[in-house]
């Protein structure tokens, strides 16, 4: 198989159950995370990964469905998985093994390998966050201003416009390379996202790594790991990388399927403990590189909030790891304002260090106006508030709609941090 070095040790499948295989006869036994190649007859082998070793028997999870698998199938040790990214990958769509899936012919492999599992740079020698970054989306540039190397979470339920927001970021953000990881994506939506949402201009500077929802949990998990490995390749070349991953929740679901197949107990709402150990191992790899590396990975990770519960286990764990969160609200989208960012519930932890004093004053005033408008809207609508009773409320009722217009943005529009604050200042006018 591509990207896998096959050694000469052999074993055989002893049992097949659920999503897993019991393998005996390999000596020395492959380690946890080691890869094996399972062959029936003369056809191509099936990739699998060892997730548990017990009493001389390795338990492995297959990289595809187990239909046709039988006891006695030949097993070979396959080392570890890696991808071989290069500049030729820009503009291409690949699977987690680095194989093209866009129908555009073979994809040249780069000279150096990138293992799917890697360690983040040492904390003590890691570079600090860079200057502020133009994300190109006014709602984020003004209310969740980011810095190079920062990691933000995009929290939303399904159907609120995450894909469109990701496409806007890939098109307009100030970066050299965009790496887009689509984990558990609907198969019919891949071409729609690449051709319509991302477009030719966005794709030209992007690498898309995709595993669709019908693929095995191992492939869905590896889509996130491969996207991170590709981003690390470009970061170590000194490039400013934007990593967009949709979604961390589906990554966690794939980990849950693998963990339960390995016999782990379902600890927190059905998620085994290994899920919450793997999340920081993935997310901490994004960010600035080592101190002597000029490159960085600015990561934006979507989190699919089940039932609009922002305190469910995966959302809560991811929010604690990342450097800020952006909340997309269905009611805002239903009201016709896109991107449907709830700016009052969104936060960037680096804002105090990347805004000038006049910009901070504009931001605090805008937040105050929007919060007061939200609190008083029902009273005004019911006639319980009389105009002129409170100048601050009168200002909020007058100015908040203009701020909402600033936050409204089409997919083709590009913005900047300076432009977002200038538009806010113009919408609010001089302070009374």
TrEMBL record:
Classification via PANTHER family: ATP SYNTHASE, SPI-1 TYPE 3 SECRETION SYSTEM ATPASE
NCBIfam families membership = fliI_yscN
Reaction equations catalysed: ATP + H2O + cellular proteinSide 1 = ADP + phosphate + cellular proteinSide 2
Q: Where is the composition biased (Low complexity)?
A: 103-113
InterPro entries, per this entry?
AAA+_ATPase, ATPase_a/bsu_AS, ATPase_alpha/beta_chains, ATPase_F1/V1/A1_a/bsu_nucl-bd, ATPase_T3SS_FliI/YscN, P-loop_NTPase, T3SS_ATPase_C
Q: What is this protein called?
A: FliI/YscN family ATPase
Keywords in alphabetical order, please: ATP-binding, Cytoplasm, Nucleotide-binding, Protein transport, Translocase, Transport
């Amino acid at each position: 198989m591509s990207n896998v070095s096959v050694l000469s040790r052999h074993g055989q499948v002893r049992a097949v159950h659920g999503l897993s295989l019991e393998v005996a006869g390999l000596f020395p036994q492959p380690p946890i995370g080691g890869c094996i190649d399972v062959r029936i007859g003369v056809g191509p082998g099936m990739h699998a990964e060892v997730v548990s070793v017990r009493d001389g028997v390795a338990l492995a999870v297959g990289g595809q469905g187990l239909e046709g698998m039988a006891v006695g199938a030949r097993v070979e040790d396959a080392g570890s998985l890696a991808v071989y990214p290069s500049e030729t990958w820009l503009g291409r769509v690949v699977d987690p093994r680095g194989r093209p899936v866009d129908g555009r012919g073979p994809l040249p492999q780069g000279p150096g390998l990138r293992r799917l599992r890697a360690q983040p740079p040492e904390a003590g020698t890691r570079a600090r966050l860079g200057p502020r970054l133009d994300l190109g989306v006014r709602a984020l540039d003004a209310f969740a201003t980011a810095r190079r190397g920062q990691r933000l979470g995009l929290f939303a339920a399904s159907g609120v416009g995450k894909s469109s927001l990701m496409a806007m970021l890939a098109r307009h953000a100030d970066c050299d390379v965009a790496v887009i990881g689509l984990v558990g994506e609907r198969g019919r939506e891949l071409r729609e996202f690449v051709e319509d949402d991302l477009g030719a201009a966005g794709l030209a500077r992007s690498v898309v790594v995709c595993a669709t929802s019908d693929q095995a949990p191992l492939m869905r998990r590896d889509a996130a790991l491969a996207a991170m490995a590709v981003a690390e390749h470009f970061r170590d070349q000194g490039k400013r990388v934007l990593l967009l991953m949709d979604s961390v929740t589906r990554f966690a679901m794939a980990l849950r399927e693998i963990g339960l197949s390995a016999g782990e107990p379902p600890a927190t709402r059905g998620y085994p403990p290994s899920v919450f150990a793997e999340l920081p191992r993935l997310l901490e790899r994004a960010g600035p590189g080592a101190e002597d590396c000029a490159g960085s990975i600015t990561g934006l990770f979507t989190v699919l909030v089940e039932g609009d519960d922002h305190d469910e286990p995966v959302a809560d764990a991811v929010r604690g790891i990342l450097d800020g969160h952006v909340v997309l609200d269905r009611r805002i989208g239903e009201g016709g304002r896109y991107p449907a960012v709830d700016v009052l519930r969104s936060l960037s932890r680096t804002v105090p260090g990347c805004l000038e004093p006049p910009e901070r004053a504009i931001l605090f005033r805008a937040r105050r106006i929007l919060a007061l408008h939200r609190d008083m809207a029902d009273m005004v609508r019911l006639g319980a508030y009389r105009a002129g009773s409170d100048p601050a409320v009168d200002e909020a009722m007058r100015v908040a709609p203009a701020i909402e217009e600033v936050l409204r943005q089409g997919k083709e529009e590009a913005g900047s941090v300076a432009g977002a604050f200038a538009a806010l200042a113009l919408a609010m006018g001089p302070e009374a």
